[in-house]
């Protein structure tokens, strides 16, 4: 785990900060919603490592100063598969760590990636919505600035209405952030 975190931090520091923030929000979500200690640990670990596959993406793509081309974006999308393969070699006692990392960009409407699933495990749904929220509020990019938390929640609420995220999880996220 430590080796993988070091690999992420040396490859792309903004991914490291994002992963730590996603972990903190996930642990807060778990605590607010009464998860037991074990499940809190698992979702926190999955959140911390969810983007470890970005270590296999070229730095020039990860740190591109402009909006990505279609090919570059398709390469970025492979980070979920790369992450699954990295975490699979870590031999976690709970498969949810690697499966949550694999599926954190899947969406309920089947338009996510990498497997275009609609029937998603709860930790995958939780991490997906938290990952989206954190990226909106903290990840300035050359082609887009970060936005305020309430604006991010408004955007995510629209995605709930469009069938991408679970409404009950959205409400639980809002309450956990309050």
Count every beta strand, where a strand is a DSSP E run of 2 or more residues: 0
User: Which range best describes the helical content: under 10%, 10-25%, 25-40%, 40-55%, 55-70% or over 70%?
Assistant: 55-70%
The arrangement of helices and strands along the chain is HHHHHHHHHH
Distance between the termini: 31 Å
**What gyration radius follows from the Cα positions, in whole Å?**
15 Å
Number of helices in the DSSP assignment: 10
Q: Which stretches are low in confidence, meaning pLDDT under 50 for 5 or more residues running? A: none
Q: Which class of secondary structure composition applies to the elements? A: mainly alpha
**What does the main sheet amount to?**
none
Query: Roughly what fraction of the amino acids lie in strands?
Result: under 5%
Can you tell me the overall shape? globular
Mean pLDDT: 92
Description of the molecule:
- With 178 residues, this protein is mainly α.
- 64% of the residues lie in helices and 0% in strands.
- It has ten helices and no strands.
- Helix 2 runs antiparallel to helix 3 (37-49) and helix 7 (96-103) packs across helix 8 (122-138).
- The longest helix is centred in the N-terminal third of the chain and has 20 residues, at 13-32.
- The relative contact order is 0.14.
- The model has no long low-confidence stretch (mean pLDDT 92).
């Amino acid at each position: 785990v430590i080796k993988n975190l070091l690999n992420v931090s040396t490859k792309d520091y903004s991914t490291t900060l994002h992963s730590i923030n996603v972990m903190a929000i996930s642990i807060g979500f778990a605590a607010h919603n009464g998860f037991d200690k074990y499940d809190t640990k698992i979702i926190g670990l999955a959140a911390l490592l969810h983007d470890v596959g970005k270590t296999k993406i070229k730095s020039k793509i990860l740190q591109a100063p402009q909006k990505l081309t279609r090919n570059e974006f398709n390469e970025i999308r492979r980070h979920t598969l790369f992450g699954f393969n990295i975490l699979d070699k870590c031999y976690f006692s709970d498969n949810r760590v690697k499966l949550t990392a694999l599926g954190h960009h899947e969406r309920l409407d089947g338009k996510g990636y990498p497997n275009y699933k609609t029937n998603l495990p709860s930790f995958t749904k939780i991490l997906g919505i938290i990952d989206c929220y954190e990226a909106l509020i903290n990840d300035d990019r050359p082609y887009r600035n970060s936005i305020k938390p309430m604006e991010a929640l408004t955007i995510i609420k629209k995605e709930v209405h469009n069938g991408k995220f679970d409404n009950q999880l959205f409400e639980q996220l809002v309450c956990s952030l309050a």
